[in-house]
Amino acid sequence: MYTFDMACFFACRMLLGSGIAILLLLATSSAQPSPKPCRCSALQPSGLQVNCSSMSLMEVPPLSPDTTELYLQDNQLFTVPSGHFDRLQDLRRVTLSGNPFHCDCGILFLRTWLRRNWAVVSGGVPTCASPSGVAHTAITALNDAYFSSCAQRSCAGWVYDTMVGVMLCGLIGLLLWGLRLAKNSTFTLDIDQRHAGLEVDSLRSLKPKHRRIQRTLSEERENSASLTWTNDPERPLINMEILPQILDVLHKKHNIKIKTI
Q1: Which residues on adjacent β-strands are paired with residue 94?
Q2: What are the backbone dihedrals phi and psi of residue 3, each rounded to the nearest 5 degrees, phi first?
Q3: Could you tell me whether strands 128-130 and 101-102 are parallel, antiparallel, or unpaired per DSSP bridges?
Q4: Which end of the chain is more exposed for a tag (fewer CB within 10 A), N or C?
Q5: Looking at the chain, which runs of residues are DSSP E strands?
Q6: Which residues pair with 259 in a beta bridge?
């Protein structure tokens, strides 16, 4: 009985603690202010008025294509996403003043849109709040020279990314080709032409693998005195009896294939 009572006590304590944690979480989430929805109202004979003014919005909310009047003044908008107003074909009035627009390359769409649709802009001229060099300047007053670096930056970035991609692909291709070539490498020994005074010792290399090959050739040369090239037409260029042995040793021990022509 004592064990059962203790188990019930700890279980109730855990449930109570979990319930308090859930209540605190709900209280915290309810205390956080949620963004207020824009006020929408139908217009006669047709259209939709969307009033989002003075709501401390930091971005333009999704808009219905039927919007004919849009009020976005006195918010915290820094920019308008590219193409955001293009689908509002029936827009007859828009207000954007009172927002701290940051006039960098991201404001180029809004400047172009305002110039093309200036007739529907009301409630004051939207101005730049930053950078300091263009503060309090009307967005529509920004000339093309101000945005010249934006096009260059975009083009340069695209060209740079393309060049890096091509170079990486080329480098990977070269590595794969080199690995395949090294795996299937074949050396050709041309013994048709006579060379005066050329000995096998002249083909020395500093690489360990090649030194092992040279020792093998030296051992084979000690067994025969015919490994030295000569101009004597009466003597063979090389002792053909030991040539197959040399080729076999190079192929089996060092994975070097030599074709005789």
Answers
A1: 70, 121
A2: -65, -40
A3: parallel
A4: N
A5: 39-42, 48-51, 67-71, 93-95, 101-102, 128-130, 186-189, 257-260
A6: 188
Taking the chain (261 residues) in consecutive chunks of 10 residues, what is each chunk's mean pLDDT?
A: 46 52 50 67 91 95 94 96 92 96 95 94 94 95 91 56 81 82 60 46 48 56 50 56 77 70 59
Task: Give CA separation, 215 vs 136, 225, 247, in Å.
Answer: 85, 16, 14
Measure the CA angle with vertex 73, ends 72 and 77; round to 5°. Answer: 70
187 φ, ψ (degrees, to nearest 5): -105, 140
Closest Cα partner for 146 from 99, 113, 107? 107
Query: What is the reported pLDDT for 149?
Result: 86
Q: Which of 170, 221, 174, 173 is nearest to 200 (CA)?
A: 221
Structure tokens at 220: 């084979």
Q: How many other C-beta atoms lie within 10 A of the C-beta of residue 80?
A: 23
What's the pLDDT score for residue 227?
45
